[in-house]
Amino acid sequence: MKKMVELKEVCIMKKAFIILALLFGSLVLTTHHIQAQVVVVKPVPPKNVVKRIACGPNRVWIDGHWRWNNRTKRYVWVKGHCAKKKRGHAWVPGHWKKVPGGWRWVPGHWRRA
Questions:
Q1: How far apart are CA 46 and CA 52, in angstroms?
Q2: What share of the chain has pLDDT > 90, as a percent?
Q3: How far is CA 83 from the centre of its chain?
Q4: 57: which residues sit within 8 A by CB, 6+ positions away?
Q5: How many CB atoms lie within 10 A of CB 62?
Q6: Taking a C-beta distance cutoff of 8 angstroms, is the pair 103, 96 a contact?
């Protein structure tokens, strides 16, 4: 009986250790991902940026914007384009946000209208 109790305690301890290791690992990865996206100088859009163009019905123009590239570890410019409207939503353009150590791009997104 005593041996079964000891085995259960060992099993519980192993599970707790695994859970803590996973939580710590995800915290480290998340922190690294966020920090990697901060730049010291806010990038400016390329000079040949396409201005708004007329989109078809049920479509909306999404201005060119920055997107973080995990492979190159830098922001890349995405050209403006027409996108299908989301019913009951409005497009909120992305913007640069001042953060400790520099600037971080807040991506555009759809918000309920």
A1: 15
A2: 27
A3: 20
A4: none
A5: 18
A6: yes
How do residues 63-80 score in pLDDT, each as one tens digit? 888 888 999 988 888 989
CA–CA distance, 64 with 96 (Å, rounded to integer) = 13
Q: Which residue has the higher pLDDT, 24 or 98?
A: 98
63 within 8 A of 50, measured Cβ to Cβ: no
Q: What are the residues facing 111 on neighbouring strands?
A: 90
Contact 44, 77 (CB under 8 A): no
Q: List Cβ neighbours of 99 (8 Å cut-off, separation of 6 or more).
A: 38
**Least trusted range by pLDDT, from 32-36, 64-68, 106-110:** 32-36
